[in-house]
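Fold Annotation — chain and its backbone

Fields — amino acid sequence, C-alpha cells

___
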Amino acid sequence: MNPTLLASISNIGLIIFALLYFYASTLYDGGSKLDPHRKSWDWINNYWCDLIWPTTLLEEPNKASKWGIVANSILCFSMILFFLAFSFVLVPDNYWRYVVSISGTIAMICGMLIFSKFHDQIIGVMILSAIPALTGLIYGLIHFNQRTALFWGGISLFSIAINIYIFYTKKGEHWLPFIQKIAFAIVLGWVFFMNSTI
C-alpha cells in the first residue's frame, strides 16, 4: 500500500465529511435538549449525534439522518486510512504498526455504528479500542521527533479527554455539545495536518 495515497484519500474524505456535516445541519429541524421544539440546527446546543439519529427528540423522522450517517461513515473510513498511512510511515517497528492499524480500524468500525440504540456502549468500546492506537501514535511521534505534530496531538488528546470526562461524569454537561465541536475541529485539523506530512 502507498501511504501517501492513503493519506491523500483520507484528507479528501475529511473534506467531504465537513461538507456533508454542514449540509446535514441545514436539513436538521429536530431541536435540542435545551429546546426540543426548535426547527433549526443549534451549533451551541446540538450534539453531532443529533444529526444521525433516525428520529428527532420529539420522535419525528429526522430529515438530516441519512446525510449524517453518510458523513459519519466517510469520516470513520477516512480515519481508518489515516491509521494505516501513519502506521506505515511513522511507526518504527512491526509490532506497533499492527497495533496502530488494527486498533484504529476496530475503533472506527465501531464509530460507524454510533447511530444505533447502543450508542453509549459503542462509545465505550471505541474509547477502549482506540487507546492502543493512540499510544502507538504518540510513540511514533516521539521516536521520529515530530514536535509540532506531538504538541498538536497532545492538545487533541486533552480535548478528547475533556469530552470523555463530561460524558461519563455529567459535570458541565450543558457545555458538552459545544466542547464536542471544538474537539472535532482540533482533532480533525491534526489528522489533516498529519496526513499532509506523510
Notes: The chain has six helices and no strands. Helices lie at 3-27, 65-89, 94-111, 119-143, 147-169, 176-197. The radius of gyration is 17 Å.
